[in-house]
Automatic annotation (TrEMBL):
Top-rank taxon: Bacteria
NCBIfam families registered for this protein in UniProt: excise
Stretches assigned to the Helix-turn-helix domain: 2-48
Protein known as: Excisionase family DNA binding protein
Length: 76
């Protein structure tokens, strides 16, 4: 499915200017049909999968209990 620059900006939650800059710097693949750029939505799937993977990894790290320090002595 192809998206316009405006639809892509909404999909990625960034501005249209940023989308155009990414297209011109070839960081986003796009087709120019003579009037507008068309962006294939499928190219973002890998990015979103990686983001989800890193969110899960960070959540796992944050939920890991802090180990007791072996140098702390019980003073009782």
């Amino acid at each position: 499915m192809y998206l316009t620059v405006k639809e892509t900006a909404e999909y990625l939650s960034i501005s249209e200017v940023d989308v155009r800059a990414l297209i011109l710097s070839k960081r986003i693949r796009a087709l120019f049909d003579g009037e507008q750029y068309l962006i294939n939505r499928e190219q973002f799937n890998t990015h979103f999968k990686q983001v989800e993977k890193y969110k899960e990894l960070i959540e796992e790290i944050l939920n890991e209990p802090i180990p007791e320090d072996i140098d702390i002595k019980d003073e009782d």
